[in-house]
Amino acid sequence: MPRPINVLFVSPEVYPFAKTGGLADVSYGLVMALRELGVDIRVMLPKYGCVSERKNHIHEIRRLRIIEIPVGHRVEPASIKSSTLQNPRVRAQVYVTTNYAYFDSRKGLYSDPQTGKPYADNDERFLFFCRSVVEMCRFLRWFPDVIHYNDWQTAMVGAYVRALYPTEFRRTRLLFTLHSLTELGVFPPETFAKTGLPERYAEQLLHRGMVNFVKAGIEFADVVTTVSPSYAHELLTGVVDSGGLDELLRRRHPESFIGILNGVDPTVWNPRTDPYLDHRYDAETVWLTKPLNKQQLLQRFELRYDPKLPVIGVIMRLHPVKGIELFLEAAPTLLARRDLQIVFLGDGASEYRSALQKLQRQFPRYFALHLGFDEALAHLIEAGSDMFLMPSLQEPCGQNQMYSMLYGTVPIVRATGGLRDTVVDFDPATGEGTGIVFEEPTAEALRAAVERALQLYQQPELWQRLVANGMAQDFSWRHAARHYAELYRTLVRGKELARAAVS
User: Fold this and answer.
1) Secondary structure element (H or E) that encloses residue 403, with its range
2) Which residues contact 487 (CB under 8 A, 6 or more apart)?
3) Rounded Cα gap, residues 190 and 210, in angstroms
C-alpha cells in the first residue's frame, strides 16, 4: 500500500486561531476534509497578538526553538511552536511562527485595528513568515511532497523553495491558491532587497515597476488554483480585475490554472448541531424553530419582532468589491418601505463605517448594525434572517451564500464568481432554484432583486419550496477535497497534466 501523500498547507489565517474572513474557514474545512481522506497534511500560520496560546493549546517544540531568519540586512528570530487542528473525527498538526516585533506585539492580522490602515512593514512581516516556513522544513529535514500556499501573504514560499533550496526541495511540488486578487501584495521596488533573493529573480517578482508577491506566487508554482470555476474564467477573460496578471494566468491555462469550488464544513456550519445557537433545527423543524432564532436576533439589537416582517442579514467586509457602495445607495429606499428589517455585521474602511452609522440613525427601527467581527453573531444572523444579501462586484467563491441555504435563509446575490456557481435563480413556474440572482452591478438591480424576494415571501407555498431547495444542497468539503487530493497525487506522479485531475 503506498504511503499517504504529505502536504504542508500554509495560510495567513486559519479558524479557530485567526480569522478575518472566509480564508480562515476554508483553511480549516479543506484541511479537515483532506485528513479524512487520508492525506498527511500539516498546517502553518503566523501567531498574531490576538491568538491566545492558552486557548489554542500552543506549546514549544523542544527540538525546534529559535530559527534565525534573514530580512534584508538584518536577522530576526523565529520561534516555531506547535498546536493541533481537529474536529470530532480527525486532527492535524499545526505549526505557528512567533516573533514579537512582527506578530505577537500586534492585535491586527494585516492592519492596525485603530486606524484600519495596513501595517507599513507588511512586506517584511510576510517575507519573514514565508522564509520561516521554508527554514522550518529544512531544520526538521522534512521536505513534503506538496507545499500548498494561499494568497499574497504566503506567496513568497514558492520563491524561497525554488530560488534558494532547489536541491533540498527537488521532490516537493508547489501549489498556489488565489482566494482573491483584490489584494496582490504590492510593495515598492526596494522590497526586493529585503527578500534575500539573487538579483536574477527580480523579473519574477516585479510587475509594473513594483514588487508583486502574487506574481511571484504564480511564477514559481507548479499549479495555480482558485476557488470557483466562474472566478477562474472571469480572471482569464478580464471580466474581473486581476491587477494585470491575467496574461500571466492565460499562459498557464488550461494545464495548470484550475477553479475548484470551495465547500462548507458541517461541523462548524450546520443548523442541526450549531453550538452557537440556542434553537437548533433541520429541514423538518425549520418552520417551527427558525422564528425563535429570528426573535433572538431582533432582541439582540432591540428591534421589534413581527413574523410578517422579513429580516435581511448582511455580513460584509467593508470593501468596494463586496458591493458596499451598492448597498449604501439602495438601502435608504429599501428601508423607507418599512416592510423589512436589515441586520448588518461588518468592518472595514472608516468612510463606510460612518455611512452605515448614519443609516442606523436614520432608520433605528429597521436597520441594526454591529461594526467588528463576532463569530457567534454571524451564526445567529444566518439562523435568524429570512434572506441574506450579497451584492458583490467580485466574489471569488463566497461562503455565506452556502451557509444561508443550509440554514433556510434565502440568498440574494449578484451573478459573479462563486455566487454564480452556487445559487440558482428561483423560477416560480417550475419551483426550481435556490435563491434570487441579479446580473447588473447597480443599486436599481439590487432593489429589484429584493422586491422579488419580498413578493415570494408573501407567498408561503413558493417561499417554503425555495427554502427547502436550499436546505437540500450538499456543499460539503468532500467534493473539493477529492479534487485537491487527486491534484496532489497528479503533481507527485508528474506524468499527467494537472487539468486531468479535475476534469
Assistant:
1) helix 400-406
2) 175, 223, 225, 258, 260, 498, 501, 502
3) 9
Task: Scan for cell 429570528, then name that residue.
Answer: 294
Task: Output DSSP code: residue 487.
Answer: H
Cis peptide bond prior to 16, omega within 30° of 0? yes
- Cα 122 to Cα 102: distance, rounded to the nearest angstrom: 9
In the three-class reduction of DSSP (H, G, I as helix; E, B as strand; rest coil), residue 87 is classed as: coil
How far, CA to CA in Å, does 220 sit from each of 147, 183, 214?
A: 12, 19, 10
Determine if the pTM surpasses 0.70. yes
Distance of CA 355 to the CA centre of its chain: 25
**Residue position matching grid coordinates 514558492:** 158
Picking from 437, 423, 426, the residue whose alpha carbon sits closest to that of residue 459 is 426
Q: Three-class SS of residue 406?
A: helix
pLDDT tens digits for range 200-254: 999 999 999 999 999 999 999 999 999 999 999 999 999 998 999 999 999 986 7
Taken in order of first residue, the domains within the chain and their CATH numbers are 6-264+477-501 (3.40.50.2000), 286-471 (3.40.50.2000)
Q: How far is 264 from 26, CA to CA, in rounded Å?
A: 8
- Provide DSSP, 291-321: HHHHHHHHHHTTPPP-TTS-EEEEEEEESGG
d(CA 224, CA 174): 9
